[in-house]
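Quick one: structure tokens for this chain, please?
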Amino acid sequence: MKEIPILTLETIKRMEDMTWFCHAQIFDDLVIVAQKETACYIWRTSDGLVILDGIWPDERVYHEIHNAIKEAGWDNIRVSKFIMTHGHIDHVGCGKYLVDRYHVKTYLSKQDDELRLSTESEKNRSDSWKEFKIDCYIKDGDIIDCGDKSIHVISTPGHTDGCMSFIFPVHDMGDRHIAALFGGATPPWNNPAGRETQRISINKFINASKLEHADIVLTNHTAFDNGLIRIEYSRERMRHLPNIYILGEEGVCDFCEIFMRLAK
């Protein structure tokens, strides 16, 4: 078995391929949308639908999110918030489309908003990921009110200076669980100090997950959790079969060893 995911230049290329998508309702109130390498989530709350991360700045991402909402039967629910883990192009992504179409309220750390806006443009890449404003700067310890539910924000710098992770409740066939989404799976490349910061953040994330009894760990890149296989399983899952995303509290800690190995 592999100790860590294999990350190559081909992995990066796949992150930019918007020709293929998949999605699945993985909990009563949570849908995952993914392309070949990168994922985002749609979370149903009494305050509306919350989009967590936004993949690439491409209108096809917005359409896949819309299709996933429709398939879940949630198209009569307003999309209220767009909350981003960090300011890289493959997570801030389709924010402009979400703002323009749904008038969502946007959330990102101040450090990573500055990163987003200061990133140099690249040939053949859309700059639309910079063409919307952030309504709320989030920081460590914030609680984002979403009506009947809330998100606990944890600052986990390393991948970026302002990277954030989220802990929030979900339900599986009516039973309540706690999900922990780690915002930045890899350390900054060729940066020993950044790797140490990443390791500190991973331990902080593990401790916060333990404190809140998280029994689910989510990622925003499918390479780290066999994500495409889990999505396929979830699409075909029958009610008597287990939810493949529920790992148990010890399983969450064990899973985080993947992040720690990558940071060594």
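The chain has a mean pLDDT of 96.
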